Amino acid sequence: MEKKEKRRGKEGEKKEKKKKIGIHFLKMIVLFAIVFIVQQLLGSILSANITKYKYGTEVVDEAILAFLTVALIMITKKSYIFKQEGEKISKSLKFGAPIITISIIFLVASTIGISSKINASILKGLLNCLMLCILVGIFEEFLCRGWLLNSFLEKFGNNKKNIILSIILSSLIFGFIHFINAAGGQSMLLTIMQVLNATLIGMLFSFIYYKTKNIWSVVFIHAFWDFSVFVGESVYLGDIVYGDVTNAVLIWSIVSIIIACLALGIMCIWYAKQMNWVEDADKKPMSKQVYVLLPLISIAIYLFANFYVPEGYSEYAKYIEYESKSLGEDYDTHYYNHNEYELLIDENERVNIENADEVKNQYKFKLYVKNEKLVLQNVNTNQEVVLLENKPNEYIMLENKDSYWIMIRPTTMMRNANKVFYGKFDKADISNESEYLNKVKDGVVEYDIPSYETMGSIEVDGYSYAFVRMPTNQRVYFDKENNIYLDE
């Protein structure tokens, strides 16, 4: 009877412990969400004043997150992470050698690729990139290893099972952070790949931190890893422009993430074998052959998953590079947020008739969303044409002295979310004839644009140029001949 009661008691304790773990896990997610919401609010206020060079806005966002994380650590009395008596940084970096090796290979390959493109603007972008990676390392390591992992360890104890559980749960939250990329229009497949990759990398960082108790070495390894990946992108205007997903590309995308996760999993096993578990005090150490081979195998597999380019991938994913051309320093920038536009043009103005006694003709057009479609309507004749079959994210219709133009940004859920539709039309061609609206529709052309945040117009010497603003705060604009340039 006593044995049954003891067994029931132990089972009850286990259930209660699992319940506490689940509740604590949810609390951590809520706290993470609060940090990100505050960051978004502060970032939106400050980002308007950021330099136009690449990664400027992201640097502000990460600086805010780093500040909030330090504040959180102080409030929750975990400042001891900054002064723990752990391994010296040289020994800590030696322990992180497999990750550093991969980073060096990435960095060398990227440096070779960008060496012919370096200029003053790109160098400033590289400095922003370096600052961003340092801030990301500080924020994510302070938060996920310094605060989050220690929070789990303090809550659930310091035996082997609970340490591994704490590492897994804190790494899962670190991985889940990357789901926020899907909200920005990134494909769910790519987002899931990032989440899996980040979760396993988070486990590697967790093992390094737990073994060395040196948060600064993990910050350095994390920052170096990110910089080696981002440095290649820093010479380009924005993200990769993606085309239609072929079966070959889809299959390789899935296979590559499985291979990369396998490599990271092997590396996690290598790190776990070197932990000082109390329960494994009498275990045999790894042989020298296994100690050397495991990281080498994982490095080779991971590099293959990242460097191998399948047939047809270059047509699916490509960087768009634009010729730079300055609009000068004296201009006004306008952003728009309207639900519909009306354009009224008098015949007198169109043909430059001065002092006419009366208006010959009046042309009135309306651009608006009707039945979840973007429609251009001739108000005088009630004729209309559908310019976009799906409700757009943004659209603009503006007038210049000799022309007007229409720019449309598709919704982020559409396949061509990295596109922009643009059409420029001379006033001399305007007509109330039924064929005219179809001519306007045919004149709205689809352009490949890397991911962009918003659109607007730049007014220079009385002429409005359409532009889109990139996440880098750079602008791509259309000139009077519909050519696309990057504003210097």
The main pleated sheet reads as:
5 strands, antiparallel
The residue-averaged pLDDT reads: 78
Number of domains: 2
Strand and helix order: HHHHHHHHHEHHHEEEHEEEEEEHEEEEE
Distance between the termini: 83 Å
Number of strands: 15
Overall outline: elongated
Please estimate the helix content: 40-55%
Q: Output the radius of gyration.
A: 28 Å
The helix/strand class is: alpha+beta
Q: Please mark out the parts with pLDDT under 50 across 5 or more consecutive residues, or reply none.
A: 348-359
Strand portion, in percent? 15-25%
SS element count, helices: 14
How do the strands of the widest beta sheet line up side by side? Answer: 3-12-13-14-15
What key phrases describe this protein's structure?
488 residues, 15 strands, 4-stranded antiparallel beta sheet, 2 domains
